[in-house]
Amino acid sequence: MTDHHLSDGAEEYLSWLAVERGRSRNTIVAYRRDLLAWEQWLADAGATVGSADGAVAGRYLEAQVAAGRSPATVTRSLAAVRGLYRFLVDEGWATVDPTVDLHPPRIPSRLPRALEEDQVLRLLDSITGTGPADYRDRALLELLYGTGARISEAVGLSLEDVGGDDPLVRVFGKGSKERLVPLGRMARAALDEWLSPAGRPRLVPDRWARRSDSEALFLNLRGARLSRQGAWQILRTRAGRIGLTAGISPHVLRHSCATHLLAHGADIRVVQELLGHSSIATTQLYTKLSADHLRTSYEAAHPRSGGAAGK
Prior knowledge:
Layout lengths: L7 H12 L5 H20 L9 H13 L4 H20 L26 H9 L6 H16 L3 H5 L12 E5 L5 E5 L2 H11 L32 H13 L9 H14 L4 H8 L4 H22 L10
Helix pairs in contact: 1-2, 1-4, 2-4, 6-8, 6-10, 10-12, 11-12
């Protein structure tokens, strides 16, 4: 396989996505990777972006599936190629869209895993130390569970995003979309401890490695902004200490926040807004999870359900 550079049309498409549509850097990087794979495959097959037809595009889709790529990966790849051709046709760079009749593989509806409420409480209550790292870890996990924020959103927070007495935190989600999220009493108390003289100020370095680190809400032990990997390790370490190891991840706390809110009667539209879901269908997954949990609990506990309690 030879080295390949993107065609001019593809470069224009990526620029349009970034400038006109405001797509995030991560999205542009992913689309570039998918388009490079498409154009490289075309070159190896003796075709070009302009000459590709439906049959060629279909063989590419089949090759992606045959290579063992997940349905989600294949769907994302097809979305990048399909977006490219829509752009090329609209701009007059191409007359035919070879992807128009292609259908991505079906993505199974996977329900998010959630912790039981007592598991989350046991995790949060287990952080009882009084060192700056203890205050930081408690504040981080309380915030993740209390707000349902993504891990990238949490480590991206700045001091001004949680400043003052306002019980709201300003979160920047996918595509830099801003939303205001309520900050519960326990999360606010944990943040106040972290921001007290015994917490974050004790990790402030004599000299900031990067100017932006001085604005970071969460710092690592070297006084730099806490990374996603660092936050992941904090959760894994804290959960491991209480024997909570199976499938633990920052996203599980987000799932747990949504599931527990719905289980206690929160409106699904409120949960959608809280989590920053662009589609209500994503939030509805949690509704099914809550219903499944309700049915399982009922069957296990009710004497007339035919479950364990009725035996």
